[in-house]
Amino acid sequence: MELEIKKGTFRGCVPVYSKTLTAEESTDAVVPDSKPDILRIADARCVAELSGKELRGGKVYLSGTVKCFVIYAPEGASAPESLGVSLPFSVAADPGEDCRGAVIRARVMGASVLAREQNPRRINLRATVRLGLELWCSREISWCEDIANAGEYFVEMLSEELRTVAVGGFGEKMLSISESAELGEVRVTGAELMSWELRPAVNDVKLIPGKAVFKGNLDVRALLKTPSDGSATAQIALSVPFSGVTDCEGADPDGEVGIFVRCFDSELSLTELIREVCEESAMIDAGHEWVFKGDTNVLLTADSAMLKQCARVLCENAQKYAPSGSTITLVVRRNAEGAQFSVQDEGIGIGAEDVAHVFDRFYR
Q1: Mean pLDDT, residues 252-259 taken together
Q2: String of b and e for 249-280 (b: at least 16 CB within 10 Å)?
Q3: What is the mean pLDDT of the chain?
Q4: In 10 A of CB 80, how many CB atoms?
Q5: Is the pLDDT reported for residue 79 higher than 60?
Q6: Which of 104, 108, 62, 261 is nearest to 173 (CA)?
Q7: Please, which residues have CB within 8 angstroms of residue 265's CB and are 6 or more apart in sequence?
Q8: Order of all β-strands in the sheet with 122-147
Q9: Is a pLDDT exceeding 80 seen at residue 210?
């Protein structure tokens, strides 16, 4: 007796590998010359961003950046100070089987940072990032629908209706969010961003043939040091709405779709960032003439907080050594290698014998 089985088939995705990974990175952070010594560490926070995932040579490689913020009480000052450090991280996993063509799903499950004072000018940071990793492969899923020759062999097919969910596929879409908001009584111009946290959430998803339409909110929390008297801090919270449409092959209104959002840095305008630093410097320092010159819309991918901190250090150095009443010029240019930023002053300059040591730590 040979029964002819009628099968139903569906091309979908099935999980073939799942693991929780841990990445640990450490570094020493040095307090800039422009900031006071550390009296004690008040708080340490971090934000982890996953930016790269790759399946190569049978292994999965994940990479990203963990941004650490240390809030500390300084010697001889009433207002807290902050120190920001970005640490790149990477981790690899060996699935132990052939996963060529697999779809990689990865997300940050949590991140923490431990800050320890080594001396009044140095902090040791140890960051830990937990990552969830899944590999999904395309497979043909089949089931029995009927027996073609059941009557010939007096076979009765018994069936039971079950409802199940099969994953049809995965897709990714880059979504840029740019928004400004009123922050109440907080004076934003010239304020220092001490720490921040982003929490995206999707709260509405609708399916139309071949596409998924989604809406959500990006909750932003930040700690600012206001420039009015240099001693006040303010916490801000705002919610930025976002929406998007992404291709979803095979989707129909009766199906289901899950949307997961992760945050990472995108392009920033170096022109606008340095212009803002120039304006802030002019507000703080009336003893020099601050001038901005630059190409329009110079874009690059970078850590905006760290880049702004670097620019401020250069400006403070120029302010310190340039004669009173002289001009300090901030310049942004686009060149063959990408972008260039410079601070030009009329100060005493650097001796030829010292130029080779400019980037040596603690060299004066």
Answers
A1: 72
A2: eebeeeeebebebebeeeebbbbebbbbbbeb
A3: 81
A4: 16
A5: yes
A6: 261
A7: 49, 51, 65, 301, 302, 303, 304
A8: 5-30, 122-147, 103-119
A9: no
- How does residue 62 score in pLDDT terms, banded at 50, 70 and 90? very high
**Segment of 192-206, 220-234, 239-253, 329-343 carrying the highest mean pLDDT:** 329-343
Q: How many CB atoms lie within 10 A of CB 65?
A: 19
pTM of the complete model: 0.61
Q: What is the pLDDT of residue 326?
A: 94
Per-residue pLDDT reduced to its tens digit, 285-337: 889 999 999 887 787 766 676 788 788 889 988 998 899 999 999 999 988 77
